[in-house]
Design goal:
alpha/beta; Rossmann fold; Ubiquitin-like (UB roll); de novo design (two linked rop proteins); 4-stranded mixed sheet; 19 helices
Amino acid sequence: MSHAQVLFARMAEHPTDSHTLVMYEATGGYVQARRAMDMTRDEIVELVKTSGLLGRGGAAFSAGLKWSFLAPARPAYLVVNGDESEPGTFKDRQLLERDPHQMIEGIIIASVANEVREAFIYIRGEYPKPARRVQQAIDEAYAAGYLGKGIFGTDYDLDVTVHLGGGAYICGEETALINSLEGKRGEPRLKPPYFPAAKGLYMMPTIVNNVETVSNLPHIFEMGTDDYRALGHATDTGTFLFSVSGHVKEPGNYELPHGITWRELIFDVAGGMREDRGLKAWIPGGASAPWFVPEHHLDLEITKEATGAAGSMLGSGAVVVMDETTCVVKAAERVVRFFSHESCGQCTPCREGTTWLEMILRRIEAGSGRPIDAELLLDVSDNISPGLTWPPKQTTICPLGPSAVSPITSVAKYFADELRQHIVQGGCPLD
């Protein structure tokens, strides 16, 4: 059994009461939070920096470095991003449902590190069961004295509030999430000046971390930075949760080390293609990411650096696999339609451009495509994301607009002939 399979087996074998305080403490829960109470802010921040922990929400920015940017004004806030609205992503849901106390212990550690006395957990509105589980766990933590006044018998106060979002994709972006948390329309803020670490929730310094990011903290404390780093790759430490879906035999959440290859993930871990069909393409990091194809990327290492150098991103760890029967034009249209629907409408290039891209792709899919449409798709895309490069240049406040461009550029780069056949034949050549 490979290293990756051993890690997944450990994750999969969980008791049915893993979400309870009794079970969490039986496996060493809250020991590291108590330890953090005796440490200084600088000690905790340095430990997390040394661990190499990168944010697991999509940006993959150093968690410890992010904490070090926190402005000195107080009060400061911690917001845990459980919106998980990227298509194909479902790993935070499992963490919230099955191990909420792990996240709460991480929240305590992060709060002490950032001198936070009030933290918020923002959960997408379509996650009622995870929200109930988290609230139950918070109630247990309050009753045990781990949250509230004088936690763990110290003079440190910490309150944690669960907030259900309104079901908008854009609220996964940290400044839009903050707006939503304040009761405003979920629209991104301009950065600068509204970097959350300086001007975040209620215009006060705020740290926004993903569910998986804070859930790593107890393990970093328990294992130590050397052992934690040894789990993964030299530049991408620890383990990473992959949500694998699509045309594989064994879809699901997998806890894996960085540095394995896409071939290992798709064929060894996820069982290969259904009905043993050929692999056509996959989206490596959620719907926002440019696609990969087997002839160029199958033996590429799964690391932030290697994936970025190849023109895409690991993002939220959502891997959507497509087999040889997939109509790539239809797949692109579905992704673009999602982003068009989810645009907050604040920026003209995104509001208008994503609508145009959807309209053109639907026309091609309906058999009414024109020879000029292939060029028109790229022209509209270039107005949203100039140069069509990755990482994207953007004419919008947030990356939603360029996210809709990713499937267009992927089809144009790897499947131009199939797109052309759609237009010439008036329909999908695979039908």
